[in-house]
Amino acid sequence: MTAEEKSPEKLLPTTLAALGIVFGDIGTSPLYAFRESFLGLAHLDVTQNHIFGVLSMITWSLIIVISIKYLLVVMRADNEGEGGIIALVSLLQTKVSGTSRTRHILVVAGLFGAALLYGDGAITPAISVLSALEGLELVTSAFTPFVVPMTIGILIGLFSIQRFGTAKIGRIFGPILIVWFTALALLGMRGIWMEPGILVALSPSWAIQFMLSEPTTAFLVMGTVFLVVTGGETLYADMGHFGVKPIKLAWFALVLPALLLNYFGQGALVLSDNQEIAQPFFHLAPEWALIPLIILATIATVIASQAVISGVFSLTRQAMQLGQLPRMAVVQTDGEEFGQIYIPFVNWMLLFATIGLVLLFRSSGNLASAYGLAIAMDMVITTFLTLFVLGRWGWNKALLVGLAIIFIPLDFAYFGANILKFFDGGWFPAIVAVLIFTLMTIWTQGRKKLREQVKHGEMEASQFVKRLPSSSIIRAPGTAIFMTSLSKGVPTSLLHHIKHNRSLHQHVVLLHVEIRPTAKIARKDQIILETLGPDFYRVTFNYGFNERVNVPQRLKRCKIKGLDLDFDKASYFLGRETITFKRSGNLIRAISNSIFSFLNRNAGRATLFYGIPPNRVVELGSQVEI
Fold this sequence. Notes:
Elements: H1 3-6, H2 8-22, H3 24-27, H4 33-39, H5 48-73, H6 85-94, H7 100-133, H8 136-139, H9 147-160, H10 167-194, H11 204-213, H12 215-225, H13 232-237, H14 239-242, H15 244-272, H16 280-283, H17 290-321, E1 331-332, E2 341-342, H18 344-361, H19 364-367, H20 373-392, H21 397-419, H22 427-456, H23 461-467, E3 474-483, H24 492-501, E4 503-516, E5 527-533, E6 536-544, H25 551-555, E7 571-580, H26 587-602, H27 606-610, E8 617-625
Parallel strand pairs: 3-4, 3-7, 4-6, 7-8
Antiparallel strand pairs: 1-2, 5-6
């Protein structure tokens, strides 16, 4: 339980902050979700039964998927308070028993689920901003040619400010989204006032009747109704930042009622005039409020996009920490707040992909075909991983079977309905996921082979220390810190240093940084000190995948463990491998080797990753054949 959940006086401020970050994605779905249920793949006739059926499906999707599945079940599978699919993968690796084969399959599935979120990171800004600016076409058709250029301009501005961080901007996100959700509710009530009879669609019987009478059509509609729950993964991923209680409070007290009121308001408007289906959201507003609503909608979509972009940054860092992706430059935009980061390479790749999507699809209606497949597949994976974890934690089997009977068929129905959109745009997130997952696989397998090769040639530390006094090696004043990927043995960088310089510092520290598959490490387990010989030490720093690595900062705490050295003037020695590959006639292996070699050469510098001052680093190269 987080400090915010323990402290009632902090609950409301934290809830406000959660509102501004967590609910932007799901909160902007009313701009397009109800409309696309009729105009999308199903080409649904605008009749009373269809309107009631769609609204009933929307209502119970929000209740079952978000309120029950994510808020009441999935959020129980937390990793030291952290959520998200990477946290689930880490749980499988550390805190869950079971056959290694089963766990391996689930871990691979979880990593593929993480890769799927990159496609969502590009689509969400594109569809959100486009759908908001399309409201300008209702003011005058003269705006139509400018919707796409304006969207691109806003997106370029959004991605350009990422390097400044969102700490200050984030403080006003919550209040703006309160205004947004209040506007959703008021607009919805205005529509419901016109046709109060629309409220009968709250009953699940209308959804059941629709699915029984027109099963094929209802199945197609599920692919677009799914758009109302696409923010579910964000709720889970951000639980570590805010805690469960603030997210639940914001959802049940404001977000869910506002969303339902707005969807029913749109339904009431279309029921009174089926011609309004083209833009039911904006037509709910009186004419005088149209332009302010468009401005507010645009701001809300920028906030939603910001939340997704920040989420992709966090996901990338977690994947790097766990060794699933090569190191990239990570800029800490706020000295205190861990979550405030900026990853330049990821940022510009997302911008490139997002602008490409806007130019390719050119409208939110077309983009809706690309949106949903990745998240639907991700939700299927999350369900299986969560139920497996909770089962291993001792949850009642009958309860888990009941939950599986409810969640799994529904998840597969959404996934199946979205698969039908593959050739209409769903191919984009699928291709992105396959590419990212392939890179992850090549990188992890390559690093594994590299570690095995380096370990194969290592020298025992005890043997090295015994030989040291009788050797002709000169001991120079000062402290040398040799970074090593090995938890045992002497690093190659130290051996190369002695070979070329015939000297060694008076005090030697072999420093191994281990990123554990758990969110945070208990303070007592963060530093492990081993004395190998006189003035010769091995230090292991354990970090969680959601903790910032800062070697100099943690070295200062070594005094508590009895290692009192002048680390401020220490020299750091890092090894840098030049990789060569054994000849192979296998084309796929040759391509994989070339990709790994490229990734290894272009990986971010270790000095940035470990927070080491570059002016005190010596890099020693070596050639390794794998």
